[in-house]
Specification:
alpha+beta, 11 helices, nine-stranded mixed sheet, binds (2S)-amino(hydroxy)ethanoic acid, binds manganese (II) ion
Length: 413
């Protein structure tokens, strides 16, 4: 149903915006990101849709056909040093499926609205675009900043989107959202499965741990007179590993992804030290227990001294998200049709825009294998045959969804 060569060519073109070696550097609102969004908008128009970049950077395509319409997409921004398929795969699938169905006389009446979300990766604030589209973006998020201190609002101004209307879900038109994504893990490749039908997306919590001590001279300050924030942060990092391992389940993960010592000079005892600590699990109660044990450890270290240790949430907790059963049924049928006996149902250990959209719309996701299970790295890759097959599965499921006589709006949550 889809044009595999055109699909792969589109992915390679999108890769070109911010390409570095085999990877991509296309953080939200960067020059390559905005050039990519303009290219996607123009491609959607060339495919016969209307399309625009909205007030938070979403590229939203609208079919010329009346609803019911299926939203298909993913994000086109990347991690600071990202892979070429994370997000991009689902965006180019959406473009290809919208184009292919409009080209065929027997499907040209169906409504597919493709979308490229803004800042799923959280360069400024995670899932910025899908939160906005779902009506879940609060004004305080516009003050969130990227690593160089620019706020969302300042970035929107800088790229010329200030005052541009933000696109919103049309409940009378949109009946569901489906997203294809690389698995970003080793599960499919290890099992030899070619397609993953997502059952749920893990819950995600993230805190910032800040240790406050006393900045002083690294030579003249006797060891017993120090309040070295760095030493306490490293102790926290070591002990939290042990604490969390005790409460972890089979799918629990946690990561200290960023740490800083201030002022960060070789001959100065750090007065302040901080790190991010992100943790994920399919079970929200376990996430609650994990957060409580992190706070408890911080309190113990503070009580012992000589530094104080504080824990603050970096963002509102994201609960586990269950995918819509009826949309999933169509994905299962399409997977069996294109990868008979070689597909699996699985939870997503990565976060996705569907976490936000599932509050207002039935959502479902489909995965293709990642080579070596690698992602969020320049080495991220998938086999071209797997890429094309994934698009065929999503196109087939799209047809099943839009021709399913029982299609009704049953927004989850
Ligand atoms: O971190 C995640 O799970 C997503 O790739 N942003
Ligand atoms: Mn990602
Ligand atoms: Mn992603």
């Amino acid at each position: 149903m889809i044009d595999g060569d055109r699909l792969l060519a589109g992915l390679r073109t999108l890769r070109g915006f911010g390409a570095e070696g085999t990877g991509v550097v296309r953080p939200t609102f960067s020059d390559p990101d905005m050039r990519a969004r303009r290219w996607l908008r123009d491609e959607m128009v060339a495919a016969g849709l209307t399309a625009r970049i909205d007030g938070v950077g979403n590229v939203v395509g609208t079919s010329p056909n009346h609803g019911p319409a299926l939203l298909i997409g993913s994000h086109s921004d990347t991690q600071p040093t990202g892979g070429w398929l994370d997000g991009a795969l689902g965006v180019v699938y959406a473009l290809e499926i919208a184009r292919a169905l409009l080209e065929r006389p027997d499907t040209s009446h169906l409504a597919i609205d493709p979308v490229a979300w803004s800042d799923e990766e959280g360069t400024y604030t995670s899932c910025l675009g899908s939160r906005s589209f779902a009506g879940r973006l609060t004004d305080d998020a516009l003050t969130d900043r990227n690593a160089s201190g620019e706020s969302v609002a300042e970035a929107i101004e800088r790229v010329g989107l200030a005052g541009v209307e933000r696109a919103r879900l049309d409940p009378a038109r949109h009946v569901g959202y489906v997203e294809a994504h690389i698995e970003q893990g080793p599960r499919l490749e290890d099992s030899g499965d070619l397609i993953g039908v997502v059952t749920s997306i893990v819950g995600i919590r993230a805190v910032r741990v800040t240790v406050s001590g006393e900045q002083n001279h690294a030579g003249t300050t006797p060891m017993h007179r120090r309040a070295d924030a760095g030493v306490v942060l490293f102790e926290f990092g070591h002990r939290v590993q042990q604490r969390l391992a005790k409460v972890a389940g089979p799918a629990t993960v946690w990561t200290i992804g960023r740490a800083a010592l201030a002022p960060g000079a070789e001959s100065i005892i750090p007065g302040v030290a901080s790190c991010t600590l992100q943790f994920r699990d399919p079970d929200d109660e376990r996430l609650q227990v994990m957060e409580a044990s992190i706070v408890e450890l911080a309190a113990e270290l503070s009580g012992r001294g000589p530094c104080t240790v504080s824990v603050e949430r970096r963002r509102a907790p994201i609960p586990p998200t269950v995918m819509d059963p009826s949309l999933r049924e169509h994905l299962r049928a399409a997977a069996e049709a294109h990868a008979p006996g070689r597909w699996a149902e699985m939870a997503s250990a990565a976060g996705h825009d569907a976490m936000e959209l599932a509050h207002v719309l039935p959502c479902a996701m489909v995965f293709i294998p990642s080579i070596g299970g690698v992602s969020h790295a320049f080495a991220e890759d998938s086999h071209p045959t797997d890429i094309v097959r994934g698009a065929e599965v999503l196109a087939d499921a799209t047809l099943r969804i839009l021709t399913d006589g029982h299609l009704t709006r049953t927004p989850a949550g």
